[in-house]
Design brief:
heterodimer, A: 253 residues, alpha+beta, Ubiquitin-like (UB roll), five-stranded mixed sheet, two-stranded antiparallel ribbon, 36% helix, B: 279 residues, mainly alpha, three-stranded antiparallel sheet, 10% strand, transmembrane (chain B), Cytochrome_b-558 (chain B)
Chain lengths: 253, 279
């Protein structure tokens, strides 16, 4: 689907020297951007231009560039991962934009995701939530049971797999008007709660993960559904409801 | 652990929000059914409505429900304010460019604003009607004019189905005590009890020569606001309580939308009917 078309764009990018500095929006003009390039490649092109003119390049997160690692973030023109659904920013292509478009690029905004530099935020709050209970305690002494020896209903296995598709990018937090992490936590709780191996520790897991989520300063879900729309992996709100159920039952136990 | 989890955690706040909200939805249905009597064109409409008002303010079971309703309103409002403040804190720096209409409906993003308008409405509504019914010493008692032999005479209607001629009170043979009780002036014993005329108060309020139209319009606007609040709130409550199942989601969603349109619409019809059609 090569279009061989180049466009000129105006970029309005959040620049912030470090966590302590005050940031602001800077405007850059970037010409000859191929519509076949990805959004991150476009930023690479901008950074080359900045380096060539001896300016500080824009810092942004990226890693696999094929939509599975969850590193790339960016709030583009008012939406997480830009103007398309079920994609990460590395999968966003410049063909989604028109010649002379003005594009706003901002970091995720959340108290729990402080800005480190420019567009890079610290998402280790997610890791601490995960460490609070997002695991199954497995005996690895060498006498492990073959996973297939435990029967799992197909329906449950599918739901668990869908929840496990979460790449922890933080788009849910970024797009939620409350900065809530409940889609992430809901997915992480669900992927284990649905499987027999995870059920053993289900009650402690949900209590601990929700406690950690609250401690990190994430907001509260008001069921607007923005997270579900913007999630690159299409994680369903069903997972938040499952977390609500699990937590309710675990609390009264 | 479990104890504080059901009171302090973010999820606990959602449960309480949902439970109080759903209870208030039930209250709306009950209140609506009662109010719809105001649309009756029967000649006994006023009496029936006032009898209903007396029942609603004196029956012990209803009293218990009404206390639950006050608590729910307060809790729903306070919980809502706490959540809104916390949620604002969760995003200290706002986006320069934000496009939330791409992924959410307007009502869902403005529940706090809608709720605040509804709370103001509830307070003024209670001052206007509930407050008068409970505390106003000048609350009128229901009367009826009967023409006997070409001589129109006014009577107070009483709870035993009888009446007290107004003349007796005017001449001092009967004394009204405790706002509704008719006492025999000589023997000083309670003879009969009258009805507070809430019907009259209500009709007079919405037919007020100066402000009746404004009150009617404000009431209708409040009901539109309530509709938007319910449009998101009803289904949201089920999600918060964990009731999300693809089998029933459509039903809950559609029922909620129907509820959000029909209930406020029926409420709004009442003052409009009173203002424009009651003579």
């Amino acid at each position: 689907m090569a279009s061989n078309k180049n466009i000129n764009i105006n970029l309005k990018i959040w620049r912030q020297k470090d966590a302590k500095s005050k940031g602001k929006i800077e405007t850059y003009k970037l010409d000859n951007v191929s519509t076949d390039s990805s959004f991150l490649e476009m930023l690479d092109q901008l950074n080359e231009q900045l380096i060539n003119s001896r300016q500080e390049p824009v810092a942004f997160d990226h890693d696999c560039r094929e939509g599975i690692c969850g590193m790339c973030s960016l709030y583009i023109n008012g939406r997480a991962h830009g103007p398309d659904t079920k994609i990460t920013t590395c999968q966003l292509h410049m063909r989604m934009f028109k010649d002379n478009d003005t594009i706003y690029v901002e970091p995720w905004r959340s108290k729990a995701f402080p800005v480190i530099k420019d567009l890079v935020v610290d998402r280790s709050a997610f890791e601490r939530i995960q460490q609070a209970g997002g695991f199954v305690s497995v005996n690895t002494s060498g006498r492990t049971i073959d996973a297939n020896a435990t029967p799992v209903p197909k329906h449950d296995a599918d739901r668990a797999f869908e929840a496990a598709a979460c790449i922890g990018c933080g788009a849910c937090v970024a797009s939620c008007k409350n900065g809530s992490a409940m889609l992430f936590v809901g997915a992480k709780v669900s992927q284990y709660a649905l499987l027999p191996q995870g059920k053993v520790e289900a009650a402690d897991r949900v209590l601990n993960m929700v406690r950690q989520m609250d401690e990190e300063g994430f907001g509260n879900c008001t069921n607007t559904g923005a997270c579900e729309v913007e999630c690159p992996k299409g994680i369903s709100l069903e997972n938040i409801a499952r977390m609500n159920r699990e937590y309710l039952f675990a609390s009264v136990k | 652990m479990a104890k504080s989890a059901l009171l302090k955690s973010s999820l606990a706040k959602k449960y309480w929000m949902a439970l109080t909200g759903l209870f208030l939805c039930l209250f709306l249905v009950g209140h609506l059914i009662g109010n719809l009597q105001l649309l009756s064109s029967s000649e006994n409409a006023a009496l029936h409505f006032n009898q209903y008002a007396l029942f609603m303010t004196t029956n012990p079971a209803i009293k218990l429900l009404s206390y639950l309703t006050y608590i729910s309103i307060l809790f729903h409002a306070i919980d809502g304010i706490v959540l809104t403040v916390r949620n604002k804190k969760a995003r200290p720096v706002n986006y320069v460019m934000n496009n939330p209409s791409k992924n959410t409906i307007w009502a869902s993003r403005n529940m706090a604003v809608l709720g605040t308008v509804i709370l103001i409405f509830i307070v003024t509504h209670m001052v206007t009607f509930w407050g008068k019914m409970h505390f106003d010493k000048a609350m009128p008692l229901q009367t009826m004019t009967i023409s006997a032999g070409g001589m129109p005479q006014e009577f107070y209607l009483t709870t035993d189905g009888g009446y007290v001629p107004k003349g007796q009170v005017d001449q001092g043979a009967m004394v009204i005590k405790n706002r509704t009780e008719f006492f025999d002036a000589g023997a000083n014993v309670k003879v009969k009890e009258g009805y507070k005329d809430l019907y009259k108060i209500t009709v007079a309020f919405f037919k007020d020569a100066k402000f009746g139209l404004i009150y009617t319009i404000l009431y209708a606007i409040s009901m539109i606001v309530l509709g938007f609040h319910l449009y998101h709130g009803f289904g949201s409550a089920f999600q918060s309580l964990g009731a999300n199942n693809p089998k029933y989601n459509g039903l809950i969603k559609n029922f909620g939308k129907g509820f959000a349109i029909i209930v406020p619409l029926l409420f709004a019809i009442i003052p409009i009917y009173i203002h424009f059609f009651i003579k």
